[in-house]
Design brief:
15 helices; binds 4'-deoxy-4'-aminopyridoxal-5'-phosphate; four-stranded mixed beta sheet; 14 strands; alpha/beta
Amino acid sequence: MWPAPNSNSAKIFNRAMEVLPGGISRLLTWVDPYPIYAKRGEGGYIEDEDGIRRLDLMNNFASLIHGHAHPQIVSAVTQAVANGSCFAFPAEREIQLAELLQDRIASVDKVRFCNSGTEAIMIALKAARARTGRSRIAKIEGAYHGMYDHAEVSLDSRPDNWGNSPASIPHTYGTPKSVLEDTLVLPLNEPIETERLLRSQAESLAAVLIDPVPTKVGMIEMTAEYIDVIQKVARDIGALIIVDEVIAFRLAYEGAQARYGIEPDLTTFAKIIGGGFPVGAICGKDDTMAVFSHENGEPLNPSSGTFTGNPVSMAAGLATMKLLTREAYEGLEMMGERSRKAIRRAFEASRRRGQVTGVGAMFQIHFNDRSLTDFRTAFRTEEENAISKQVHRGLLDRGFILSPRCSGFLSTVNTEQEIDDLEIALTETLQETAV
Ligand code: PMP
C-alpha cells in the first residue's frame, strides 16, 4: 500500500510543501500523491521513512552501479572527506580518474570534469561551437540529455505538434525562439530523413548529439545503419559527433561507443563515474579538447566551476570504476538478459499485452505489442500510461522499485534470486492490472 496519510512519508511531504515548490526538488522522481521518502540504502535495498524495505532497481536513475553504501566506496569517500572536501587547489584524484577513463576508452585523450550530466552536455555543446565556429546542434527527437536549453528541445513533442519531419518543440515555457531555430531534431533510426536534415544545415551544424540507447526514447537501440549514416554525414559536413554516455557507459567497459562502433569527437560522462556523488566529464581527442586549454592564451571555451573535480566525487568515482571490472560488466550483462527474459515470461504467464526493450543491465517495460523503432512508436497512449502507473505501484507494493516509467537499471549487487522474485511480482501485478 502507498504510505498512508498518517505515515512518516506523508508527514514529511506536508512539511516539504511549505518550503519546496510542489514539495520536491526533482520532477523526475515525482509520484502521486506524494513521494516515498528514503531513510537509508544498503546494497540493493532502500529502507523508507516508515521502515519498509524494497529492492531498488532504479539506482538513482542509473547513477549507482554497485548498489547503496558499498563498503569500499564508503571507505574511499570517508577518507576523502576527512582530508577536506574541496579546495581551490587541484587534487591528485582528478588525474587518477581521468587516467582510468583514458585507459579504457579509445576516443579519450583528455578529460574535463564538471558536476553533472547537464553541465557535461552544455559544456560539450559549447566546445563544439567553439571548435567549429558554428551555432546549431542536432539531437534525436525525444532524447533526454539534461536541462541545457538546446539539449531539452523536443523532449515533450506530441502527436499534435511533432509534425511530419520532427519539429523543434520547447520543453520550458519561455524558451527563446533562437534556441528552437538552432536545434535540429532528428528521427531515430530513420537514416534517409536524418541524412536529408543534416545536409540541409550542412554549413551551420556544430555537432550531432547522440546516445546509442536513448532511455527516454523507449530504450531503443540505434541501428548500425543509422549510426553509420550519422557518422558519415557528420564527417562530410564538418559537424562534431558528441556521444552522451551519461547512462550508456554502464553498457561496456570500453564505453558504449566501443559496443556500437562509434568514433566520437567528444563524449560526455556522469552518473556512475561519480560513484553516487555529483559529477560530469567531457572527454575527447587532443585536437578537440584543445578548446579548453589556456596553453596558448585565452581558451576558445573557458570552463570552470567551484566544485569541479572535487576530491569527494573523484574518490567515489575512482573506487566505483575500479570495482567495475570486465567481469563486473559481464555479470551485469547476464543479469540484464535474465531480467528481460523474466519480464517476457511475466507477460506470457499473465496473458497481458507487453514487451521489454533494453540492453546490458537496463530494461524498459512497454504495455503494447507495436514494433518499437523510435520516439513516435514508443510514445505511450493514455491507456498505456495508466497501466504503467498501476504496474509501478503494484511492484512497489510487492517490494520492487522501478522508475515511474517502469524502467530498471541493475547493479552488480543484484542477485539471480531477486530477478526471479521480480518475475513473480510482475506476473501477479499484471494479473491484477485492468487492461
Ligand atoms: N544525459 C543523459 C543520457 C541522461 O540520462 C541524463 C540524466 N538522466 C543527463 C544527460 C543529465 O544528467 P544529470 O541529471 O546528471 O544532469
